[in-house]
Design a protein that fits this description.
The chain is mainly β. It has one domain (6-201). It contains no helices and 20 strands. The strands form 3 sheets. Strands 1-2-3-8-5-18-19-16 form an 8-stranded antiparallel sheet, with no helix packed on it. It is globular.
């Protein structure tokens, strides 16, 4: 049985590392968790930097506490690190100071030795008023998607990313306003982490049952012997459902979601999307 070791750093926000087992899918592959403080601040973010000489190959995040009152703002990969930010839902029709409950955000980062052909491709939608926006970041010809990210500009908790789909050739990000609308200007960005084709690289997915239960989640695994690289998600409900996490587990991913503070009477489902590679 492989031994799992956890290492706590002395950084302001503790970072936990899941030790690399023998025969990792990508040379040097390691998983890192970076949690924020737990409090009722309106906005918080965390940034993790990969070990020297390594690059980001995948991302994920988790919101804990104040379910339905906090949304993801940033899941931004750079070559050397990942920034995850989230904020409370504030603005017209919402409490002026957000929720009083304590909550935290955790960044999940996959780091590895630089794969051949490594490149991050960012794309940003038009900036202006809208009820919904879509943007795609595509890998250049001959390269394949290994991981992704997304972010919002403005929105102040009233815009959320309902979908960050990890396809074989790129990332599709889809964001919408909440049920009472948002009249301000905003944009959504997608980030495609690309590389030359890795052994056994594939994009997979799973989904929950379609019912009115809240919260709910889906755990999906890579094929036996494969390793997860990055997490994505999608929900079929346009409004009132907030994706609270899309993060890596030991051999796959877990995606979670909850109804917003006002609830939702209809049925809904949440889907996972993720990339895996073969050792």
């Amino acid at each position: 049985m492989k031994r799992i070791a956890w290492i706590v750093s002395l950084a302001v926000a503790a970072t936990l590392m899941l030790a690399e087992p023998a025969g990792a899918a990508v040379p040097g592959l390691g998983y890192f968790l970076t949690p924020s403080e737990t409090n009722s601040a309106v906005y918080k973010s965390v940034t993790f930097a990969c070990p020297p000489g390594q690059v980001v190959v995948g991302t994920g995040y988790q919101l804990a506490g104040a379910e339905g009152s906090v949304v993801l703002d940033d899941l931004i990969p750079t070559e050397t690190g990942v920034t995850v930010g989230a904020g409370e839902v504030v603005g017209p029709g919402e409490p002026a100071d957000g929720t009083t409950l304590n909550w935290s955000v955790t960044a999940f980062t996959s780091c590895a030795d630089r794969p051949a052909g490594y490149q991050i491709v960012p794309e940003t939608s038009f900036f202006g008023p809208a009820t919904e926006r879509h943007v795609a970041a595509l890998c250049p010809g001959g390269k394949r998607l290994i991981g992704g990210g997304t972010s919002l500009s403005n929105g102040f908790g009233q815009i959320s990313v309902r979908e960050m789909d990890l396809g074989f050739g790129g990332v599709n990000a889809y964001a919408v306003d909440d049920e009472d609308g948002y009249t301000g200007s905003w944009s959504v960005s997608a980030y495609a982490i690309c590389a030359d084709l890795l052994p056994g690289l594939r994009s997979l997915g799973g989904n929950t049952v379609n019912n009115s239960q809240s919260p709910k989640g889906v755990t999906s695994s890579c094929p036996f012997g494969d390793r997860p690289l990055s997490a994505g998600w999608a929900t079929l409900s346009r409004e009132q459902i907030i994706v609270t996490g899309a993060y890596l587990t030991g051999n796959g991913v877990r995606v979670t979601a909850a109804e917003d503070d006002t609830g939702y009477s209809g049925n809904w489902t949440i889907s996972s999307g993720y990339t895996c590679a073969t050792p």
